[in-house]
Write a structure and sequence with these properties.
heterodimer; A: seven-stranded mixed sheet; four-stranded antiparallel sheet; 50% strand; B: mainly beta; globular
Chain lengths: 106, 121
């Protein structure tokens, strides 16, 4: 099983600031990495797949980077609707998710 | 626009079998491009992949749950289903169904809204 670790667990950011979220895999997953956003009471929403490709309808302020074992999700200028929990997921092997990063208002 | 909707009992007794169905609308489950999956999320916790199915009936299960799960498909109803046997309180979770990106191991998009299943006597 590939273990995904996300950090920080909680990120406090002011609206308009940049947020950088990290995800680490216990072994290489190449670029087989997705990011999701989840708001309270809602299903996760796909943001990024292939480590850096934005899903349909996702704003350009969301960007993904990395390969191998280290990945980053960057939100360039946080909007009010971006405060949520973010999960990474690898699909190089049977799917597994990170524990999530909560982005909260500072 | 493709939509998925989970349905099934919200309360299951310990040791019994949890049964859920995912109904797909706005597209055919038989398209030979996509796989379909189940994911769960215990209250306040993270996400866990349960298993994946193809319209032909081929299945792929999380090894940690494999002995207790069965996923099936009914193409005539555009549905796929999950059965989880011998449930305990640890199986209490929101259960989601979703379409995979294009392979049997892939990202999930879109997702159903989820259904909470509580295991309790």
């Amino acid at each position: 099983e590939i273990v995904m670790t996300q950090f920080p667990v909680t990120l406090s950011v002011s609206p308009g600031e940049r947020a950088t979220l990290s995800c680490r895999a216990s072994q290489s997953v190449y670029s087989n990495l997705a990011w999701y956003q989840q708001k309270p009471g809602q299903a996760p929403r796909l943001l990024i797949y292939g480590a850096s490709s934005r899903a349909t309808g996702i704003p350009a302020r969301f960007s993904g980077s990395g390969s191998g074992t280290e990945f980053t999700l960057t939100i360039s200028s946080l909007q009010s609707e971006d405060f949520a929990v973010y999960y990474c997921q690898q699909y190089n092997n049977w799917p597994s998710f990170g524990g999530g990063t909560k982005v909260e208002i500072k | 626009q493709l939509q998925l909707q989970e349905s099934g009992p919200g309360l299951v007794k310990p040791s019994e079998t949890l049964s859920l169905t995912c109904t797909v609308s706005g597209g055919s489950i038989s398209i030979n491009t996509y796989y379909w999956g189940w994911i769960r999320q215990p209250p306040g916790k993270g996400l866990e992949w349960i298993g994946t199915i193809y319209y032909s009936g081929s299945t792929y299960y999380n090894p940690s749950l494999k002995s207790r799960i069965a996923i099936s498909v009914d193409t005539s109803k555009n549905q796929f289903s999950l059965k989880l046997t011998s449930v305990t309180a640890a199986d209490t979770a929101v259960y989601y169904c979703a379409r995979l990106g294009g392979g049997y191991v892939d990202w999930f998009d879109p997702w159903g809204q989820g259904t909470l299943v509580t295991v309790s006597s």
